[in-house]
Amino acid sequence: xxxxxxxxxxxxxxxxxxxxxxxxxxxxxxxxxxxxxxxxxxxxxxxxxxxxxxxxxxxxxxxxxxxxxxxxxxxxxxxxxxxxxxxxxxxxxxxxxxxxxxxxxxxxxxxxxxxxxxxxxxxxxxxxxxxxxxxxxxxxxxxxxxxxxxxxxxxxxxxxxxxxxxxxxxxxxxxxxxxxxxxxxxxxxxxxxxxxxxxxxxxxxxxxxxxxxxxxxxxxxxxxxxxxxxxxxxxxxxxxxxxxxxxxxxxxxxxxxxxxxxxxxxxxxxxxxxxxxxxxxxxxxxxxxxxxxxxxxxxxxxxxxxxxxxxxxxxxxxxxxxxxxxxxxxxxxxxxxxxxxxxxxxxxxxxxxxxxxxxxx
Length: 361
Description:
Layout: H1 2-20, H2 32-43, H3 49-65, E1 76-79, E2 82-85, H4 94-105, H5 113-121, H6 144-159, E3 163-171, E4 174-191, E5 194-201, H7 202-205, E6 217-221, E7 225-230, H8 242-254, E8 256-257, E9 260-261, E10 265-274, H9 277-288, E11 307-315, H10 318-328, E12 333-337, H11 340-360
Antiparallel strand pairs: 1-2, 3-4, 3-7, 4-5, 5-6, 8-9, 10-11, 10-12
Helix pairs in contact: 1-2, 1-3, 9-10
């Protein structure tokens, strides 16, 4: 009876071994003798080779029946005298697991203890100490309150529930001018190293026709939120279809710059001219991290004298002008704006800044 019960456990231990202690990139593989030794350590019992063969066959049948591998493929296969494994269809790969750990390590409000759980799930992926890698963990005080609010956001999006949020402006570690807003959540976004809630402002939506709902979409930065609760008595303003919602969300993001959104979108053409191609590329790279060009850029666009002409479709928001000014802070770089209205507003901002500086001196 005891051996029979151990045999039932054996197949589970074998599945667990191939699932967590091996990887598809493993060049070493594992022999039957090594599997027998592993089971001896786990179950304090020695099993026959033929029972190992039979269990591996059953495991392959299981993953095939559950469509975890491509039709006609075996998850566990023999190569020479060693067993190896391929990737399951729903398996997290080594690159994906390490990417998750890196993301957690560098996200300020999450606990890096989560990484230990992932390493335990996939020990073969983390043979070496991943903390020794170049990424610097941002593991400070964990903001459990904001993590809970994120879950509230997700639940409200999934269940189409309106939310009441308290929203303000940051001054140091404090929030000022906090006001109550009723919103209908649509999606979460990540920008500027922070989560944003994209939601319909219920007050604005109530004054619009249903087909104009996109005009009520707003972005709310998580670290400017002070309270999140379900607004049970408030309506949820939803789009007529998922396609309409997705189109509205895409338009909002396309018309955003550094998380600022605007209904006003312009075609902008600029010329960046440096003393050399390197000077031009330095300025362009700083600008292009936030603004997407309207077409692909290659080395044929860079003139021999270090000139680079770019065309953008971009939101006319305050951060556009700070980003344009940043180009001019690079030594030896000149900027020419070919859009008349943008150039005029840019000059107005520069004049205002110079007048302010003059008044303070």
